[in-house]
Amino acid sequence: MALQFSEMTIEKFEDRMRLRRRMLQSTGAALGEGSAWPTTQKDIRASVQNCCACDSEADCQAWLARHPVADAPPSFCKNHDAILRQKKAL
Hints:
Elements: H1 10-26, H2 41-53, H3 57-66, H4 80-89
Helix pairs in contact: 1-2, 1-3
């Protein structure tokens, strides 16, 4: 379920950001020194907003449980194209 501003609690936001980090790690686009993605503050902001706007949280959790390592994110991931673009740029 997409997080609405009125429903956003720190806990819900942190839960969503944990999923985001797991997706980035699973697909090899993890954040941190030497990482390929995101490359700018604009990219970071967009990826956070995409995750908060996502309505596939349960699907994401299930996919991550089945794919601790993957070449690409699932098609329903709102950061799918951005992750693939950055991985291709490597």
